[in-house]
């Protein structure tokens, strides 16, 4: 699936359109009649039925390739006014780096539907996800300023560093399998309490990660007061800094709305101009599916050792190799691995969009549509195998023979897929030093999802708001549940600290240049 893939690059030029009004009153262009005569939209839609019908016809590989290619194009397209890029921020603005809850006129920022938290602040996905390459993390200039409460006050604004997108498909699959274990545990403990006619308590453990415990009562009710690091519905939500989003599609459509002003019909409704820019149906369901598949298909992060062994970077010196190896041991001994677990395994490497797990797909879309009625059928998903289908990072020799599929995940001796994410898909209280002025999603102002460390050597700055310009700063900011790891690090001799940093710097994002 996708083995004959060649990445397409579209270079699009769109004219700039200026709206001139009086000195006291500005309005965004909503009548695009003349604009349409002089310029063209950059976006060509892909219908969901095109993908679903291919799967139904037994052409699953073709469905994957089409979705990936279309998602690739969308990811780097600079959307213009005719596409629906940007929004009616107010005061004539189409883009803003600062939330504008103060602009509450008809169709302006504070009245957009769905509710806006930031932006729009970019024309393209790769305007922010660009370090060290497309689909990577962002720089300080790419951080999003958010006002989720629409407070309109500086002390209620929060800042978010742009995360990289590598390995997203495997991350969602881990969350799916872990959630299944937790849900089965819940059903079993309720059944046991009813049968035994007494309280039954059970630890919540999935893939070795402990999420506290639950107690079922004889009447079938459930006490979740001792659940830890996860919501009481026992769904593992691996995305966003607060661990508030369960599946990639939800992440993608939210980012499209907030950051780009490109509203999917599944977000605001069919034929609805929810952001006051004069354009409706900006992203169709097939467009969001394609962006989801593209994001899920990003290659796994790698290590310096892997790249050097393949001749993709200069050979490592014996001293650097030894330092990385020592640093890996320090990482474990200094308690880092208690939360940043080096690897978890998948029983099945198949990623499906929509997911076959009901907790990781929409029962109803945010705007109320029935996904199945709109062609987004879990019985006919666009699928990929995470161990062999990544289109990127296929290393070939001079004759074109495949030497290594570097983007694919490996299998262990039992056929399980190894995901070296250096994380636990769990929330932790990081102490008052990392607390925000607001509690964004109700999980605690100082509570954060463990940041997966794969790729960390190429994704500075660090932490949710980019306050740490170096890895050492990031470690020193750890508090709360992570205070022990910080203290263990500061207690190390300088040589041990240097080895740990060398190890972390060896965890890299990498992409081979795209084929023309």
Give an overview in words.
This protein has 516 residues and is an alpha+beta fold. The chain contains 12 helices and 15 strands. The protein has helices at 33-38, 48-56, 60-76, 168-196, 248-260, 265-268, 285-296, 304-309, 318-333, 471-476, 483-491, 494-505; strands spanning 144-146, 158-160, 200-206, 209-216, 222-223, 302-303, 344-346, 350-353, 382-385, 394-396, 402-405, 417-419, 427-429, 447-449, 507-508. The strands form 7 sheets. It has a 3-stranded antiparallel beta sheet with strand order 3-4-5, covered by helices on one side. A hairpin with a 5-residue loop joins strand 4 and strand 5. Mean pLDDT is 94; it is low at 1-26.
Order the strands across the largest sheet as they lie in space: 3-4-5
Shape: globular
User: What does the radius of gyration come to?
Assistant: 24 Å
**Individual helix count:** 12
Beta-strand content bin: 5-15%
